[in-house]
Hints:
By secondary structure, the chain is an alpha/beta fold. It has twelve helices and 21 strands. Helix 4 (193-209) packs parallel to helix 7 (273-279), helix 8 packs parallel to helix 12 and helix 9 (367-375) crosses helix 10 (386-394).
Amino acid sequence: MDSSNNSNTSEERRNKVEKYNVTLQPDAYGFATSYITENSSKDKSEAKKNHKDQSLDDENLSLSLAQREYENKTPKDAGQAAGAKSKSKGSFIQAPSIPTQMGPKGIRYDFNDGARVLLPKGTWHVQLEDEESGNILFACDADEGWVVSTKKYYVPFRIRIWDRNNLNEPLLDHILELKDREVLLKFPVGTLGDILGWFSYAEKFQKKHQCKVECTLAENIIELLKDQYPDLTLSTPENVKQKEPYASYCLGLFFCGNEDYQPYDFRQVGLARTVGYILGVDPEETPPRLPENPPRTISEPYVCIAVKSTNIAKMWNNGYGWDMVIDYLKELGYRVLCIDKEKTVGYGYVWNQLPHGCEDFTGDRPLKERAALLHHAEFFIGLSSGLSWLAWASGIPVVLISGFSLPICEFKTPYRVHNTHVCHGCWDATDVNFDHHDYFWCPRHKGTDRQFECSRAITGKQVINTIERLRRDYNLKAPKDRLS
């Protein structure tokens, strides 16, 4: 069955097939399955009684029933990027309820939410293939209804459909071809770092296939990126321009081992690189382009820091760490600017305040302003959070402090601070799943004196030594010594 019914047993699937009068061939590779709408005479008779348009003919009624069937079976929240707030309609705008491409004999198909075929009443044999490998992913006989691939990420699908009364030549033989076609890439909203890590893959995809790409993004990210990417259309989900795209793909982090929307578990390949694999392009990470040569507003040498995140596990939970680092930087003569969005974050009895000794540059400021401030900083110190990704995109050295994630998770930086002497890396462990609703998530040691030891054991000395190495690499003299 489709991804919403993956828990069905083999016996349940056989019963379902018999109910829907479908001949199901062995799903040998597990790559794709289908569901078939029933649309029996009884269903149509009942529907005609209740339908507002009593003149609806059988063909259009079948289409109406099939549309409702697809909408009921399509996952409404297939996946969610870390930090994104799920809305009632799910994290991504839904695919068109009816396939956008018209084939012969009233057959409709497209590649929105996987390979999709909608069959009118007839005697059909349907086959889905992977054109690159030649694997037959799924084949069945059907009288009418839906055939939808389980896999929703980029696959070079081939759809072939025969009339069972004439199996010599298919009525439809269509290979996915994206050149000059409209393709919608759906990014989640409510997250910053993920999008900055993923966005370059949209451009790689557009260049590889020479297609007309539209990306759905949050408005603040559109303002940051739109002038740097003239070949991509950037829209908010509410104002998407492509109403009937040929293909679309959901880009995100899919949890609980979901491999229908991602070919590899993101925890095994890295947060940014996972989207390269979803889109079938080179997964090598590339920072997005930001506005060039932004104006400098602070003349003195300064360092930016960000100390807060969306979950305590992501923060640096050493009680003395930030104070030690800020004192060290100020002794060197740096101004230390805290650029978090919020001055105070927390939940219940635990709250994270502005560190002592830094300057308060917090606030909900435009990302262009934040990027300009970062561009002229000598370096950035932060967590596994969105502002670290923005600093990476700004092209400055990043000292990244994280214990709950492994270095493979984030972008490459030689100044990654991690302590392997204690429990660490739970975010990337495939035997546990991140709980977005648990602010105190610590899957192995919650409620014990070892809770959050992954970051508590990262010392101020360890971070200062990393900064010293960075200064040697970039030949950064202490600001207090530059005038002498």
